[in-house]
Amino acid sequence: MSRAWSPIALLLVTLLVWAPGLSGQFHFDDLPNIVLDPATADSAILMDRLSNGFRPLLRLSYALDHAIWGFNAAGFLATNLLLHLLTVWLVWALAYRRLENELAVFAAACVFALQPAHAAVVAWASGRSTGLATLFLVAAMVAHDRAASRQGAWRAASLVAFALAVLSKEVALVLPALLLLWENTRAQAVPFAEQLRRVTPAAVMASALLLAALAGSSRLRELLEFSFALAAPLGALAIHAAALPASLGLWLLPWTLSVEHAADFTPAAMAAGATILSVMIAVAVRYRRSLPLLTLGLMWPLVLMLPTHSFIARLDPIVEKALYAAWIGPSLAIGAALPWVVTAFGRRAALAGMVGFLCCLGSVSAWRAQIWAQPHALWREATERAPLSARAWSNLALLELDAGRHQAAAVAVARALALDPQAIKTRDLALAISFAQPLTSEVPRR
Asked: Do 255 and 371 form a contact (C-beta atoms < 8 A)?
């Protein structure tokens, strides 16, 4: 496949696979984040909100969508899909700078584009923060690689893209660590002093952006305070040690994907998770020089998820949105393995296997997009994947009530209250359901 046609074919395939997500609607976090937030539609409130400094580019993107589409969910989801298409194209450009084989470049970009776990970013309006930040993060990496060892316009472009990524989502501050990994896994070894010289501008900017965010954003400080109140740093680290392998495993087990995941970690699970992570790091270090792209594929997700999966506690330790940008490194490693597969099994067999694999991946992604487009199916699935989640049952009850299925809503809210009797919103929902019940119906026993 020629370099001219490769990105066109890639983008067409991506569009075809993820198009089912455009039929979705606002739900879950979309309501407080977008629909009910006055900053989305009121420019005066928007200006006041931007002065807080918390993800201003994200907030501007929502306001722009509203100016174009109104509160039409399809318009917001179309923007998410456009961001994904641009990110896929940039991943292709990044792969082209690291992989020598044209087919390997196409395969790597396709593997990224068609990952089923991306549905939480592409097919959900509130996934926008991750999609927007990742777009600028990859743009910063492409510009950095173009700059190579020289200064100039590409270096400046990389720093501008980095700043835009942080203004979309603060976890993009991890870019200097990613750049150091990128430099450290080049086919031709680069002296460590030179690696540091290339990464220093981004590290200086990251420090400045972090200080500015902490000083200027009360919302960010509130989130950090909440996280540290939720669990002590070492306790959070232990939970994340168990959760991270489970999160990464979602790439290989798409049938376990869900908006809600069970997260009851025992000490044995934490120890097992720490062991798995240690093995990944050991293998990456062992083959850093002989198989640098293997090292890149193993270490990329660990570095990228460090801000959200280390010392800062989360209510949801297993998440799918964080897997979006984390999949770039493994995708490049998978693409790099294609020439070896061709040598081992022959070009025809390797191509047939690649096409079959990508067709399966695309089919599952289209299915996940359809699930996210149907909130009732999404939260019904969540109650099956995480039956002990009060939030899953409560959200399902709300959807059942909205659909006029009062009996099913009563059953779901009873399960939610049994799991979390102190939840005020769930108790209010139960009261609303009881008022909506026909007088002749019986409310199921809890």
From this structure: no
Pair of tokens at residue 384 = 């099956």
Name the nearest CA neighbour of 7 among 78, 113, 79. Answer: 113
Place of tokens 């792209």: 293
Statement: residue 176 has pLDDT above 80:
yes
Amino acid (one-letter) located at 17: V
Contact (CB, 8 A) for 142 and 109 = no
List the beta strands (DSSP E) in 93-241.
Answer: none
Answer positive or negative: Cα dihedral of 304, 305, 311, 314: positive
**pLDDT tens digits for range 5-34:** 888 999 999 999 999 999 999 998 999 999
d(CA 358, CA 84): 17
At which residue do the structure tokens 């191509």 appear?
Answer: 351
Hey, is 290 helix, strand or coil?
coil
Q: Decide if pLDDT at 420 tops 50.
A: yes
- Whether the model pTM is above 0.90: yes
d(CA 44, CA 139): 31
- The answer to whether 125 touches 73, Cβ cutoff 8 Å, is yes
Distance CA 248, CA 238 (A): 16
Per the prediction, the chain carries an average pLDDT of: 91
Phi, psi of 5 (to 5 degrees): -90, -20
Number of helices (H) and strands (E), helices first, in the chain?
22, 0
